[in-house]
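Collaborator request, handled under Task 6.
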Amino acid sequence: MLETAKDTIQLQTRITRNEWWYDECKEAIKEKNIARGKCLQRRSRATQEEYEKKTIIVTKICRNNKKQWLNNKIKEIEEAHRKNETRKFKILRHIVG
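Structure tokens returned to the collaborator:
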């Protein structure tokens, strides 16, 4: 039954919601999680400060990546609007907002 469903319907690809999510964000979050684990294992001022620093770094990296991605999408929308590419304009406008 599952094989027949796979043949007829096929697998649907997942829609990536966060196109701005790059490997840089993933690596920073992994480092932050490691620092959190150390902080939980050994509760000291040094481990707590390291964890807080990593959290601030992750926040900045993700915020900057999202801001840069959003600015690029806005430029694409403006360019599509100038060229009167209404279909592309509508699609891009839907993605951003």
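The cover message to the collaborator said: "The helical segments are 2-9, 23-41, 45-82, 86-96. DSSP finds four helices and no strands in the chain. Please let us know whether this matches your experimental observations."
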